[in-house]
Amino acid sequence: MRPPVFLADPAQLAGDLIVLSGAEGRHAATVRRLGPGEHVDVTDGSGTVAECQVTRSRDGELELAVLARRAEPPPVPRLTVLQALPKGDRGELATEIMTEVGVDVIVPWAAERCVVQWRGDRGDRALARWRSAGLAAAKQARRARFPEITALAGRDAAARLVAAAGLAILLDPAAEAPLAGLAAGPAGLRAGGIVLITGPEGGVSPSETSLFTGAGAVPARLGPSVLRASTAGAVAAAIVLSDTGRWA
User: Fold this and answer.
1) Lowest mean pLDDT among 98-112, 182-196, 214-228
2) Count of structural domains within the chain
């Protein structure tokens, strides 16, 4: 079992001693009840990891001796999910599962048929919840590179993202081509990475389908069943990561 992961500023990782305090320190010392001699990893969320041993634990604070450092390179190909806004708290669920699976970038997308609308303070709060869910899931999954969760993308921004991808896949339960195997081979390794597009509960509209396929997206189906908007991205990501060898 890999040791638990905690987040720290890059400057903290440079020294031979790291003191975890604040929310991270409270979680490590009070919730996890880690004690002297136990091992933990501390990351900046961008690939740098300090492998540490606990030397002292006190209320809400953990003192760590750095034993070694390592740098994990960016994964290839980079996987982005264009995630249409689901209803209720399913956006946080989608973010959590996709983070655990290994998605690199999650882009909230305001599709035409989305019931949920992010406007003003409500949108800011919703995005903050997605990012909080991604942070917690990244630590739980022992990731050294945390996912980027971008600001809300509209129609034009989503189309530009698709056009710039090395391979863009539009999840469509009515598509003839299966998703399995589609990302294998050189196409999945081109510059620009892979973009998965998952629609809302009502599906991707005809005009959006035309827009994305015109920008180069390939329609593909996951399987015989239709998944929820909150789970389709994670399942599709797992298939793509397996096809490209990232799950090998």
Assistant:
1) 182-196
2) 2
Domain encompassing residue 162: 79-243
Report yes or no on 248 lying in a domain.
no
Predicted local distance difference test score (pLDDT) of residue 225 = 85
Residues near 193 by beta carbon (within 8 Å), at least 6 away in sequence? 77, 78, 79, 80, 104, 165, 166, 167
pLDDT in tens, 40-66: 999 999 999 999 999 999 888 999 999
pLDDT of residue 187: 58
Question: What six digits make up the tokens of 131?
Answer: 């990012």
Is the pTM higher than 0.90? The answer reads: yes
Q: Given its phi and psi angles, is residue 69 left (phi above 0), alpha (psi -120 to 50 degrees) or beta?
A: beta
Residue 90 amino acid letter: R
CB neighbours (10 Å) of residue 176? 8
Phi-psi region of 216 (alpha: psi -120 to 50; beta: other; left: phi over 0): left
Is residue 32 exposed (0-12), middle (13-18) or buried (19+ Cβ within 10 Å)? middle
Q: DSSP string covering 155-169, please?
A: HHHHHHHHHH-SEEE
112 domain residue, yes or no: yes
Q: Which residues contact 237 (CB under 8 A, 6 or more apart)?
A: 79, 81, 98, 101, 102, 103, 196
